[in-house]
User: What shape does this take?
Amino acid sequence: MKNIRNFCIIAHIDHGKSTLADRLLQLTQTVSDRNLQAQTLDNMDLERERGITIKSHAIQMRYEHEGEEYVFNLIDTPGHVDFSYEVSRSIAACEGALLIVDASQGIQAQTISNLYLAMEHELEIIPVLNKIDMPSAMVEEVQDQITDLLGFDADEMLLASAKTGQGVLEILLAIIDRVPAPKGDPEAPLQALIFDSVFNSYRGIIAYYRIMNGSITKNEKVRFMATGKEYQADEIGILELDQVPKKQLFAGDVGYIVTGIKTSKEIKVGDTITSVSNPTEEGIGGFEDVKPMVFAGIFPLSNDDFEDLRDSLEKLQLNDASLVFEPETSVALGFGFRCGFLGMLHLEIVQERLTREYDQDVITTVPNVNYFCVFKKDQRREPINTPADLPDPTIIEHIEEPYIRAQIITKPDYTGQIMKLCMDKRGILTNQVYLTETRVELTFEMPLAEIVFDFYDRLKSISRGYASFDYTMLDYRQSDLVKLDIKLNGENVDALSALIHRDKAQAFGRKLCKRLKELVPRQQFLIAIQAAVGAKIIARETLSALRKDVTAKCYGGDISRKRKLLEKQKAGKKRMRQVGNVEVPQTAFLAVLKLDD
Assistant: This one.
């Protein structure tokens, strides 16, 4: 055990985590130069296309130093704020962390957030200044930032370039010297923490775990403590680029187990595996349950695909433990699921993965957040998951909405525009600190609902990509919210309803009606698109009817013949409007997210 080192790589998005992981794999010869490609551990097409890490990836490396062989278990983590749950799971399975800071960009919001997460778990942190080969690198300035903000001395920091490989050997030696070996007892009863799982069509569910105490042997009978279910360990092994089977694994090892489980509910990330013959008294205190921030309905295009969609979501949940879902029904869309996500990028990724990996064509409703409704009579607080759940306004005392603390780190040049953006989104400035002469930290308290749609994109465009953003939940606060309904020909489209602040309802309603006029296909009858708050119509657009040329067959002749045909058409259109159903395309649901484009 003294030669095992378990560590993860944490950083803000695009600071070079995956590239550094490539260099470490190359240096330890875990992956041959022939098989090595850029971002080797990012094995999902989506990750390669977008250039971001979505999933944590575990891999084992071996390296000989001064006559002793060391085993490194590396977990490469995502950097985007929407995937911070992946980072917390990785940190729970490690003793050390490489904190990567881009020398050309300096400390960003997610760097600080991930650092605090690692410090809570008492990890040994090694700060690394990456991209020092770039012409825009500000090595001394960023070193001063790290010293001022994070409290590390200059001699503790390592300088490296993951692209060229400079300084990578020093990082590996620092891991050997500074990261402590695992502390578990190999003779104690088995305790293994599950930190991830994947579904395989042929082998069932494969769980990834870190052994804290004891050992596990092939064909041994094991118990999953959260469910109480017992299984035989058909295969155990370590995670290199491929899964490598082993006869036995000991405390400190990171590995996988195949038990033939086919049902996703029987494996829970954060659960403890123990031995049936020599069980442990208590499970490992895992990480917290995930708290979704954004909710949206996901519905199949056809109701016949409902069960297939359920299976796909369950398999996806194995691989993405931060996804939560429950069944719901909609008048407009039929049967589907109400899903909880950590943010808008997370929602986008889940929708894309359902389409690509599971061949599910789905409709996603307008995302919203969870509200609380307080009743007049007994002051009861009840959660409101969708605008359709809102009771009669006459019995409501008030509605409470979630607030967040947003931390934005940017250059002073963009401070004014960022403040205006946040105040337009009902934000309250609580703090402004100059971290250095060229970096300022702004802290706002603002409603979560306001950052759900386009806040992150607009922040990036205002600051030309230089602002970084991180947020934490605060509490629920009373707000003047109203339910905005969208009506097509007088019929409510419940999937387009939204809870919105009274001051913004009219402007939002107008924009939405205008956008729907462009997207709803024209029919042979006139369609009224209306936005309403209660019984009051606050915006309207009219989609004119398609006119079939019924007089085309009349070549000249008496005008009364043409008039007769036109009157007949007019009467038909009137009748058609009374019974006509309007098809709402999927693009109309997505249009709500892009109203400010």
In short: The first strand starts at residue 4 and ends at 11. The mean pLDDT is 78. Residues 4-178 form a domain with the Rossmann fold fold (CATH 3.40.50.300). The longest helix spans residues 559-579.
